[in-house]
DNA sequence: AAGACACGCAACCGCAAACAA
DNA sequence: ATTGTTTGCGGTTGCGTGTCT
C-alpha cells in the first residue's frame, strides 16, 4: 500500500506556492529524491542543512536526513519484514523497550521508523487482540501504551506470541554486520570534489562486495559492502558462522541499485 | 456503485543530547 | 561557562488505498 507521492508544490503542507523560498513539506517527489541522492552520493554530508541547500532543495535538513535514512539509503532492505525479523523485533523490544533506533541498529537494512510502524500497526495490535481474546478486560487499545510493561492478560498473550521468538533462538547477532556505502568511482562530476561520503560511512573501513547503479547523467556509482564495523560488545557474540547466517537470513540479496527508482 | 471505515506508511513535531563558536 | 546550532529519537498525525456495508 505504497502511497503515491502527491508531490509537487501542492502536497507541501499548504505552501501557497508563490514563495520560492519557503520550505516544502509533505511527500517527496522523484526529482527531489534524485537530487538528494545524488548530492549525498557525490559529496557526502557535512551538515544536513547544507545538503538541502547544495542539492537545491527547499527542504529542512531534518527532512533531508529523514528521507535519506528511511528511504534513499542504499543499504535498506526493500522487501517486507519477514516472520523471522518479526520475531527478532519482538524479542528485541522485550529487552530494549521502545528504543526503536537501538532495535534498528541490530537489524541491518531496517529503519527505526519502519520497525516502529511495524510494531504499532501490526504486532501491538495482535498483542492487544490476543489479550482481549484471552479474556483480559481492560482497554484493548491501551491507546498510548507501547511500553513493555503490560497487564496480566496482555502479558500472557505477549508471552505466547514471543515464545516463538525466544524458543526459536534467534540467530546470535554476529560481531559484525554487513553495511553498505556508496562511492563514486567513475566520472565524478566536478573535478576535485571529494568522492567519499562523509558521515554515512565514517566508521567503515574496507570494502567487500560491490554492485553498481547509475545516478545523474552517466556516472557510475559502486556500492560497497563493509563488514568490518565495530559494534558494541555488550550485545554481540562472536560465533563462527553467525555472520553468514545473518547475512543470508537478513540480506538475501544486495537490495540496491535496481530498486531505488 | 457509493460511502464509511480500517489499515499501513511516510513524514512531521517536539524534545533532548551533542557539538561548535 | 554560555549560547546557538545541528542531529537523533520517539510519538503522533495525515493521507492514500483497500475492504466492508
TrEMBL record:
Residues 20-72, 73-123 form the Myb-like domain. GO terms for cellular component: nucleus. The lineage of its organism: Eukaryota, Viridiplantae, Streptophyta, Embryophyta, Tracheophyta. Keywords: DNA-binding, Nucleus, Repeat, Transcription, Transcription regulation. GO terms for molecular function: DNA binding. Residues 1-30, 130-162, 186-219 are annotated as: Disordered. Residues 142-152, 193-208 have a biased composition (Low complexity). SMART domains: SANT. It comes from the Eukaryota. It comes from Setaria viridis (Green bristlegrass). This is Uncharacterized protein. The keyword Membrane does not apply. Residues 24-72, 73-127 form the HTH myb-type domain. It is found in: Nucleus.
